[in-house]
């Protein structure tokens, strides 16, 4: 029986042991689950522990995942006990409280205003940004800085070291704002592909005034140089800081940016917490382009923190490696530091602090530890509210959450205090497990059954002496026994008593150490005696090495721990170096870019590097107009688009989506290829969100606000894409869908809605709907005025030297007027609104809007910037139409005086728009009788146009004629003054001429249109007679003599500038000498002519002449039977045709399959605006295109029979040279001086020769009265010409009717008979317009039989007219 009993007892003992082991293992697994609750409850689909992006690069664990694993690192490997065998596979469960505590916070902020001011002094130039926010109807303001890094004159600070490799050498701390959910499915996905994964150790150099330096306390700054000792002098200071770069794509709804705003506001209201919490020292936007906060854009935001030497986790590693412990005094300082952080934050009702050994950092600047809690911190009482009043109405649920968070933070501190008392023999996770088990048994009132090792209170009493550590032990006991308490204020007051006593004790110790430094041996003996009497494990502590001071320079003392041990490939190293250099676009950027091009790089990284290189190019770009710079950026984005188009990818990768987003923001074309790819990626993300919608926050759900904003963004970009291709119907459809969607979902009070209205108004104005444009723009302006006010609120109080004196409950605000630069689109709204009023003939409101737009533009640009001068010209146009000579003269005098000063300083202008302004100023002076000033500014305009490389032969004729006219007026005025007569007598008809009659035409075209009789200038006299003679010989088959004269003229023109007149003469010479020249010579000559035409001619004359030359070259190549060259030349011709079609967008007419759908395209817009002459020229190009298509077809039909190539080339060469289009072009050159004189010569050669011999002086001696009548009649006829309606009749009928109507208008029957009896030479002596036609009626009737359609869309327009009827 005894034996059986013993066996049975052993068996029961084994079973009991196994049960205990099983229970212990289950509890252990449960504790691990509680610590890692974040991973188990909020694990992202895109990123489970590590994420592979599309490039194949592994993304490291984000900070939140590292923090919850830190307790596992608390025990060294050599001291870990062997794990027990698993006896249960039951999954541990996490509590709801833990899930809520470890979840990252989303702060509900609403941005309602943005103010951007330009601050500039001798040392720096930067933006001062104020963002107004609302948190539950409470208004707060966050302050930031900004610099335009692509503009050389902006400077706020400089960064050291110069390379990323040096800055990253000791970077071990993960970034604080690394996660974002805007282009991610889940918030926990890291988004650091265009920034850095770790905080960089940098030195930020900034110039501060001495007065600012004195007001800053507790700042360890290195003074590099002192300029002077005056109060206003600047001192260059260097701050040792940490740098983090984040991207901002939406200032209204992006959670990461809103978190930054929340903490900036928190720091403002609780300034004295900077000794406890890691603060954002400086926040600076790094703008690549001027800020446009109203429209989608991607910005980089630089966040600077005080230099963080190491964390408690690093300190733990130091102690374990050195097998040392903290000294008793050092441990007390650390404990007091942690307790003060807890008390200081919860006194301000800030909770969810998240104390871990990875979030507590030693800050050398303050010589203490600080807590980093950007991810989870919340506030119970809203900023600026009275706690006593708010707590009375606070929800009980919120206060319970506050109490639970307080206890979690409190016991996290107690665990760390106990752990760092004896690091070598303890494990932090074991201490946490012991505490949790102790509290479970406390609830069950089973503490008596606990073993000593598992009793949390006994563990504290064992480690801490009742005498030496009595205050710490008192704190620990109060914390343990307040587990069931709920009065946080009472617990804080109790803890304060213990901390005050502990602080006094430490102060006494510091005083003793300072006073007894000379007797260190006696002090060490006394400390040894105290340690022998107080510690329980005496022998152990005597052998363990103690640290008497916290490490300050961990890089030198513990280099192995301080070094960044991340292994980075050469490609990633170079990529990160480029990003680092692009922060301020340093000198090493270009070298890094060239090195990156030689490596085998991922496509997405290559795309982003190309974008950065574009901005680097813009920084070196000499043009100061940002309008031109943005056009260059858009053009260079084509390279990036070609790269990313090769990826047929519709993934959900955030790098891919953000790249597509940035391409769309920078490209003015808004290419559909990129837009469709972006839409696919967002749709794929949306599908995955639908599957996990219950796990996402409301804002980030499939039907949340973020997805709604993305939908609106895509619709607006689609409208802009259609607008860039002049497809107005589709553009209107898309933008109306975007506006309707926002109205349905109550998004009226948002920037996206205001921007949508702006785009809608722009489309409506271009599509000739000014009333609709005005309504949209007025609503848009209301939203823009709300978000971008002209004032800002500042605190009305004196500078506070002591942060503890800051009382947020007594803050008073006052409004000050500012010049807001938050967006230039507000000026665009004013401009478009002004032009819409102008289109509906409301000139007063138009003028007011244009003046406001000019005022807004002058905040960012100087008075000679293209953006400003364009608005000035529009205002001058309205003043001219109103005959308001006073305001027009004021503007002219302002610019004239400033230009005189600029010319005295040696400045030269090089812009065409400045040339136009100078020409108009000269014309205003001429109208006012200031002839000398007028000549001066006309000559300046001519010189400016030459500097802009836009001057040519025809323009020179206009300038010469204008100067001759002013000189004649000046001479006449001189003779009257000499003869003591009035300069303007009562009989002078010019007194009755209005400003509009004199200058109205100046705004219709770039240069003043003179009457035809004044075109016989000195410049034209050099070549005009020979060209007229040659034109007559060509029409009368005098080819040989014409070629001889052309050769002589070409030799003469070779000595001067080769402009468009030289190209036209060469063109004529080539046409006559095709049969006599070598094919190689013809080919070289044609390429030279094409180059000149392409440089000087404009649409559509350029396309006509270039296409004609290319077709002649095709005939030459066909005669040589060189098939390869023919097919290569086909590409050039087709490219010319494609460019021509892209300009007019012919396809937009044929894209409408329904007859009831009206599509407005550029061609019809040209017709409605009265540019009928351009329609004639377009018809000539279309006929050449039809001829090419027939020619091409014949070539392909005879590819097998090359013997017919020569005959085919000769046949089509004659058609090209003598084509109907070419002949019609000569006949319809009514606005060309050469064509008009050519026709006069054919009518009467003898009389014309007499007219040419007549000197110019005879014309100048004509009476002033006759001259004014000529100008007056010209103005009236010009207005009638602008009101021409597009007609379906032939060109001959139009010209005959126009001629008869012109001569009969305003004349009696006798005058009409007198005109018919007047000989032809006398008619030519009278002034007439360039648009007049001298074709006899009989010839016109004969030519009417020719089948010539001037409108290629005649059938389409007939259908539309029938529908309207």
UniProtKB/TrEMBL annotation:
Comp. bias (Low complexity): 524-533
Domain of life, per lineage: Eukaryota
Region (Disordered): 69-99, 515-535, 1317-1365
Protein name: Clu domain-containing protein
């Amino acid at each position: 029986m005894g034996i059986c009993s013993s066996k049975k007892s052993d068996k029961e003992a084994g079973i009991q042991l196994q049960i205990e082991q099983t229970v212990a293992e289950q509890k252990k697994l449960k504790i691990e689950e509680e610590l890692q609750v974040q991973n188990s409850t909020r694990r992202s689909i895109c990123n489970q522990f590590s994420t592979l992006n599309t490039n194949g690069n592994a993304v490291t664990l984000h900070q939140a995942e590292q923090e919850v694993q830190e307790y596992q690192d608390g025990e060294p490997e050599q001291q870990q006990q062997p794990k027990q065998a698993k006896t249960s596979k039951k999954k541990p469960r996490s509590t709801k409280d833990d899930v809520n505590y470890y979840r990252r916070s989303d702060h509900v902020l609403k941005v309602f205003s943005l103010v951007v001011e330009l601050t500039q002094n001798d040392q720096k130039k930067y933006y001062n940004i104020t963002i107004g926010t609302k948190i539950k109807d409470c208004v707060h303001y966050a302050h930031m800085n900004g610099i335009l890094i692509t503009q050389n004159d902006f400077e706020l600070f400089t960064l050291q070291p110069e390379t990323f490799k040096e800055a990253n050498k000791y970077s071990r701390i993960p970034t604080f704002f690394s996660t974002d959910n805007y282009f991610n499915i889940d918030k926990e996905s890291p988004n650091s592909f265009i920034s850095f994964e770790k905080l960089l150790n940098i030195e930020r150099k900034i110039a501060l005034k001495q007065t600012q330096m004195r007001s800053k306390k507790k700042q360890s700054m290195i003074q590099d140089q002192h300029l002077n000792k005056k109060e206003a002098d600047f001192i260059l200071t260097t701050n040792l800081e940490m740098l983090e770069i984040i991207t901002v794509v939406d200032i209204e709804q992006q959670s990461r940016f809103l978190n930054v705003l929340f903490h900036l506001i928190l720091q403002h209201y609780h300034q004295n917490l900077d000794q406890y919490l890691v603060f954002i020292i400086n926040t600076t936007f790094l703008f690549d382009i001027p800020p446009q906060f109203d429209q989608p854009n991607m910005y980089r935001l630089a966040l600077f923190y005080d230099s963080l030497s190491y964390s408690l986790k690093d300190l733990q590693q130091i102690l374990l490696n050195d097998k040392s412990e903290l000294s008793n005094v050092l441990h007390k300082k650390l404990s007091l530091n942690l307790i003060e952080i807890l008390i200081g934050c919860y006194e301000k009702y800030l909770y969810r602090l998240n104390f871990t050994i990875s979030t507590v950092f030693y800050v050398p600047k303050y010589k203490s530890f600080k807590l980093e809690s950007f991810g989870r911190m919340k506030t119970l009482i809203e900023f600026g509210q009275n706690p006593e009043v708010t707590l009375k109405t606070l929800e009980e649920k919120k206060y319970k959450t506050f109490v639970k968070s307080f206890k979690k933070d409190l016991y996290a501190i107690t665990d760390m205090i106990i752990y760092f008392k004896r690091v070598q023999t303890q494990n932090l996770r074991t201490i946490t497990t012991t505490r949790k088990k102790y509290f479970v048994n406390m609830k069950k009132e089973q503490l008596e059954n606990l073993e000593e090792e598992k009793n949390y209170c006994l563990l504290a009493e064992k480690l801490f002496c009742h005498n030496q550590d009595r205050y710490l032990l008192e704190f620990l006991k109060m914390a343990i026994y307040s587990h069931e308490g709920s009065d946080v204020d009472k617990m804080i007051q109790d803890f304060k008593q213990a901390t005050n006593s502990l602080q006094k004790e430490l102060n006494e110790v510091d005083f003793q150490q300072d006073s007894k430094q000379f007797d260190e041996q006696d002090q060490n003996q006394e400390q040894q005696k105290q340690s022998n009497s107080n510690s329980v494990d005496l022998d152990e502590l005597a052998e363990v090495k103690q640290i008497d001071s916290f490490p300050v320079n961990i890089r030198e003392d513990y280099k192995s721990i301080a070094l960044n041990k991340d292994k980075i490939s050469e490609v990633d190293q170079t990529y990160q170096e480029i990003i680092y250099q692009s922060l301020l676009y340093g000198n090493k950027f270009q070298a890094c870019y060239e090195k990156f091009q030689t490596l085998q790089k991922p496509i997405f990284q290559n795309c982003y590097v190309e974008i950065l290189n574009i901005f680097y190019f813009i920084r070196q770009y000499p043009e100061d107009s940002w309008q031109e710079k943005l056009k260059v950026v858009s053009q260079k984005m084509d390279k990036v688009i070609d790269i990313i188009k090769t990826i047929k990818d519709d993934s959900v990768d955030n790098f891919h989506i953000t790249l597509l987003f940035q391409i769309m923001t920078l490209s003015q074309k808004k290419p559909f290829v990129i837009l469709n790819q972006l839409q696919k990626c967002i749709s794929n993300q949306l599908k995955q969100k639908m599957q996990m919608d219950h796990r996402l926050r409301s804002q980030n759900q499939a039907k949340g606000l973020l997805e709604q904003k993305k939908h609106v963004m895509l619709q607006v970009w689609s409208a802009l894409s259609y607008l860039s291709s002049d497809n107005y119907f589709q553009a209107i459809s898309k933008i109306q869908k975007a506006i309707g969607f926002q109205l349905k979902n109550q998004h009226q009070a948002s920037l996206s809605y205001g921007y949508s209205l702006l785009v809608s108004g722009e489309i409506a104005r271009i599509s000739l709907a000014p009333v609709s444009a005005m309504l949209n723009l007025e609503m848009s302006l209301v939203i823009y005025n709300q978000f971008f006010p002209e004032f800002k609120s500042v605190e009305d109080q004196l500078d506070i030297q002591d942060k503890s004196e800051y009382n947020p409950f007594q803050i008073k605000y006052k409004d000050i007027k500012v010049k807001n630069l938050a967006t230039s689109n507000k000026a665009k709204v004013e401009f478009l609104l002004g032009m819409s009023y102008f289109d509906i003939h409301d000139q007063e409101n138009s003028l007011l809007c244009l003046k406001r737009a000019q005022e807004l533009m002058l905040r960012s640009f100087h008075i000679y910037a293209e953006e400003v001068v364009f608005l000035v010209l529009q205002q001058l146009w309205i003043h001219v139409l109103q005959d308001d000579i006073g305001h027009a003269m004021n503007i002219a005098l302002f610019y004239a005086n400033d230009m005189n000063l600029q010319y005295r300083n040696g400045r030269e202008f090089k812009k065409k728009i400045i040339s136009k302004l100078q020409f108009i100023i000269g014309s205003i002076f001429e109208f006012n009788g200031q002839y000398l000033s007028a000549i001066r500014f006309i000559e300046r305009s001519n010189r400016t146009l030459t500097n802009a490389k836009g001057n040519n032969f025809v323009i020179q004729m206009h300038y010469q004629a204008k100067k001759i006219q002013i000189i004649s007026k000046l001479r006449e005025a001189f003779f009257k003054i000499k003869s003591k007569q009035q300069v303007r007598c009562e009989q002078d008809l010019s007194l009755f001429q209005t400003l509009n009659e004199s200058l109205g035409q100046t705004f219709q075209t770039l240069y003043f249109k003179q009457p035809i009789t004044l075109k016989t200038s000195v410049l034209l006299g050099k070549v005009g007679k020979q060209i007229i003679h040659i034109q007559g010989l060509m029409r009368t088959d005098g080819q040989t003599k014409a070629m001889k004269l052309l050769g002589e003229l070409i030799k003469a023109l070779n000595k001067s500038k080769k402009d468009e007149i030289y190209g036209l003469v060469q063109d004529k010479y080539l046409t006559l000498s095709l049969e006599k020249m070598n094919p190689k010579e013809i080919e070289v000559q044609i390429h030279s002519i094409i180059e000149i035409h392409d440089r000087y001619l404009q649409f559509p004359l350029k396309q006509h002449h270039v296409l004609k030359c290319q077709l002649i070259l095709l005939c030459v190549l066909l005669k040589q039977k060189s098939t390869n060259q023919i097919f290569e030349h086909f590409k050039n011709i087709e490219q010319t045709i494609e460019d021509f079609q892209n300009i007019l967008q012919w396809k937009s007419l044929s894209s409408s399959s329904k007859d009831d759908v009206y599509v407005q395209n550029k061609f019809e817009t040209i017709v409605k605006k009265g540019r009928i002459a351009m329609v004639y020229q377009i018809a000539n190009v279309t006929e050449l295109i039809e001829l090419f298509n027939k020619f091409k077809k014949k070539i392909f039909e005879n590819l097998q029979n090359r013997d017919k190539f020569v005959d085919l080339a000769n046949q089509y060469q004659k058609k090209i040279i003598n084509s109907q289009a070419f002949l019609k072009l000569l006949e319809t050159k009514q606005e060309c001086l050469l064509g008009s004189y050519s026709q006069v010569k054919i009518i009467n050669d003898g009389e014309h020769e007499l007219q040419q011999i007549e000197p110019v002086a005879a014309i100048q001696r004509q009476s002033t009265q006759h001259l004014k009548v000529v100008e007056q009649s010209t103005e009236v006829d010009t207005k009638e010409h602008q009101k021409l309606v597009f007609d379906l009749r032939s060109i001959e009928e139009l010209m005959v009717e126009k001629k008869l109507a012109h001569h009969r208008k305003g004349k009696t029957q006798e005058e009409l008979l007198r005109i018919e009896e007047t000989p032809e030479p006398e008619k030519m002596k009278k002034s007439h317009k360039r648009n007049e036609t001298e074709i006899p009626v009989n010839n016109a009737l004969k030519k009417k039989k020719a089948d010539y359609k001037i409108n290629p869309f005649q059938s389409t327009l007939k259908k539309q007219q029938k529908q309207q009827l």
